[in-house]
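Annex B. Sample input.
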Amino acid sequence: MTLYLVCINLAAFVLMGLDKRRARYRQWRIPEKLLFLSALLGGSAGAWAGMYVFRHKTRHWYFVVGMPVILLAQLLLIRFFG
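Annex B, continued. Sample output.
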């Protein structure tokens, strides 16, 4: 489980950086649904960190609010079931 969480958070972080790079060079972008999916699958901490490290999606309220809400929900689930 720990290895999975490390990998999914790293993947979500990298996706944020890759999408930022693609935005900068006006290339094909990673769909926002995929960014949220990576967070929902357990990578919310990595996605949230990637938002601020790469300064990406920080002007979109649904990312600014959504990522911390997903992270909080996941932490509560871990607390409740773990």
